[in-house]
């Protein structure tokens, strides 16, 4: 049986209870929180800054849903979509540039208060930045292309989207754009992720982070939960109960719990075999593999029993809620998995990304 809000997603009309004023107030509050993060320091500032990873997408979802009732909100949603995509492209370029500065030693000199001298970029750095920019441009173009109605009607034959829905159009645009930008920067780097490049060139930075990694994960999780609710229309077109059901956050039966435990055991063994197989293939073909030592330094304090619990909860609940609960039912398993894998392309090589995808 379709929920009241489901009628909206398939027809483009709102049939559930409206909370547009509250949604606009919520968007204003999270915007204020982002601004406050710039001027605040300490743990509160760290918490608010962690919201920068998810707040822009929450605002985008709110504007998209409010736009169903108020056309002017759709205009703002499209403008905000453009800003989000440009922000992703800019972040990709900044990661690439920072990795190059770390390789050349310029970043270490700057952080030490020394004057920069000589070449800022290592050999081939300029070509790398151009390649990253071209991939980002491709992502922006595809993100704009899927907003065209005839293109969405064609994609609707492959994806479970409603080509008439503005909400689906915006979701499709940001997901395809982010996926291409994420994979593109890794392809431009020859399969070597920028974060690990920085860790290898500046190991003292990762070592000095201490236990901040765990706090960053917890802070991100605290922002991801409400953002995940907003991504499916809360509180604009769905009540909290309808939202939880839409995301699949319902009480499992005893049979489901037992089945999940058994499946988890099988998946642990399967994941080990998969990683071993991918590693052998990459080694045989001479492709660059994810630097395990650098990745462990990147995680720092998260490599511990407590870290395993934190990662399990934050990733197992937060990320899965957004990707499996919100995106997969509307964009299909292939595109949502590609998007999920692309989010890891800044710290994993293609071998690790393939493992995440599968």
Automatic annotation (TrEMBL):
One BP annotation, GO: CAAX-box protein maturation
Segments passing through the bilayer: 21-41, 47-68, 75-102, 128-148, 169-196, 216-237, 257-278, 298-318, 330-350
One Pfam family matching this protein: Rce1-like
Molecular function terms, GO-annotated: endopeptidase activity
Keywords: Membrane, Transmembrane, Transmembrane helix
CAAX prenyl protease 2/Lysostaphin resistance protein A-like domain ranges (all copies): 306-357
Protein name: CAAX prenyl protease 2/Lysostaphin resistance protein A-like domain-containing protein
Species per Swiss-Prot/TrEMBL record: uncultured Chloroflexia bacterium
Organism phylogeny: Bacteria, Bacillati, Chloroflexota, Chloroflexia, environmental samples
């Amino acid at each position: 049986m379709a929920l009241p809000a489901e009628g909206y997603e398939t027809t483009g009309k709102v049939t559930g209870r409206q909370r547009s004023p509250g949604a606009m107030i919520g968007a204003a509050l999270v915007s204020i929180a982002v601004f406050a993060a710039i001027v605040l320091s300490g743990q509160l500032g760290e918490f608010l800054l962690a919201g920068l990873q998810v707040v822009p997408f929450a605002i985008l979802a709110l504007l998209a849903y409010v736009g169903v009732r108020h056309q002017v909100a759709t205009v703002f949603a499209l403008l905000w979509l453009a800003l989000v995509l440009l922000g992703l492209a800019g972040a990709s370029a900044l990661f690439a540039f920072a990795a190059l500065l770390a390789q050349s030693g310029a970043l270490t000199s700057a952080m030490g208060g020394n004057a920069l001298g000589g070449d800022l970029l290592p050999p081939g750095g300029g070509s790398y930045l151009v390649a990253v920019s071209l991939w980002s441009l491709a992502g922006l173009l595809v993100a704009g292309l899927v907003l065209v109605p005839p293109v969405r009607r064609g994609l609707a034959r492959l994806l479970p989207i409603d080509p008439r829905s503005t909400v689906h159009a915006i979701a499709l645009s940001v997901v395809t754009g982010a996926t291409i930008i994420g994979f593109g920067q890794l392809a431009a780097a020859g399969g070597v992720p920028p974060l690990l490049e920085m860790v290898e060139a500046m190991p003292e930075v990762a070592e000095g982070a201490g236990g901040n990694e765990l706090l960053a994960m917890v802070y991100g999780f605290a922002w991801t939960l409400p953002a995940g609710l907003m991504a499916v229309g809360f509180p604009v077109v769905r009540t909290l109960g309808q939202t939880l059901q839409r995301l699949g956050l319902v009480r499992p039966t005893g049979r489901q719990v037992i089945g999940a435990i058994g499946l988890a055991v099988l998946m642990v063994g399967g994941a080990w075999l998969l990683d071993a197989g991918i590693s052998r293939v990459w080694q045989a073909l001479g492709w660059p593999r994810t630097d395990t030592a650098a990745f462990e330094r990147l995680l720092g304090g998260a490599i511990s029993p407590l870290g395993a619990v934190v990662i399990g909860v934050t990733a197992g609940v937060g990320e899965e809620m957004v990707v499996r609960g919100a995106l997969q039912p509307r964009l299909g398993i292939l595109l949502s998995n590609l998007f999920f894998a692309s989010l890891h392309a800044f710290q994993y090589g293609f071998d690790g990304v393939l493992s995440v995808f599968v």
